[in-house]
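Late entry, evening session. Most of the bench is empty. Finally got around to the prediction I had been postponing all week. Sequence below, unchanged from the version circulated by S.P.
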Amino acid sequence: ALGVSVTDYTFEDCQLALAEGQLRLPSDTCLLEFAKLVRSLGLKPETLEDDLDKYAASAMKMKKEKVDLKEFSAYLEFPVSSTLESMFALFDENEDGVIDIREFVIALSVVCKPSKTLETIQLAFQLYQSESGTITKEDLAHILKTAMGVSQIDVTHLFRAVDEEEKGKITYDDFYTFAELHPHFAEDYLYADQMGAESGLETSALSAPNGICTDFSPDSAGDRKKPLQKKLN
C-alpha cells in the first residue's frame, strides 16, 4: 500500500548489527544472512542458548573434523533442505563440499550473544586450542573472521600485542587480560589495519537513515536477484 520495498530482517537482526560488544559487525558481514537462516531452519530464539551449548559440546568431541552436507544435517538433527544447503554454503569457502563445524558454532554464538564478545572468544578458544590450551595466529584469524562474518582479516598486530613474550601462541587468559586492559582492542588493532582492505571492515561509516538502525538494505534492486553469496565473497 505504501509502495516501499520490504525486508525480512527482524528487530533481532538490528540488535545483532548494533550490539555493543568489543567486536562490531562490518557492513559486509554474512552473519545477518546467517541469522535469517537460523530462524528459517526452525531454531527458536528462546532456546538458542541451549542449542548452542549442545552444538558446542558436540563440536568439541568432533575436534578438527570437517563435515559434508549430509554429516552437517545429522549434526544439527535437521533434514537436508534448501535452507540447510544455503547455511552450509556460507561456510564452504573453498567450495570443496566440506566445512569446519567450529565456524558454525562461533557464528551461532555471535547470533545468540551479540554483545558478549569475550564469551564467544572463550568458546572459540576451547574449540581451537591445543592440548596445552594455546592457539596460534592462524587460529585467531579463523576465530575473528568467523565472529565478524568476513572473508579475511589481518590479526598480526593484535596477536603480537597479546603475545608479549613472543611465544608464537597464546592462551585465553592471555587474551582476556589483554582485552581487560584494552577494551577497544578491535578499533585499535583490527579495524585500523583493515580500512581500505578487501575485507571491507567499515564500521564507522555505516549510515543510520532513521537515526536508530544501520542501513543494511541492498544498494540497488538488482542486488536482490544475486544468488546467495558465500562468506568468501
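Two things to note before I forget:
Residues 195-214, 220-229 have pLDDT under 50 and may be disordered.
Residues 41 and 82 are 10 Å apart (CA to CA).
Will write this up properly tomorrow.
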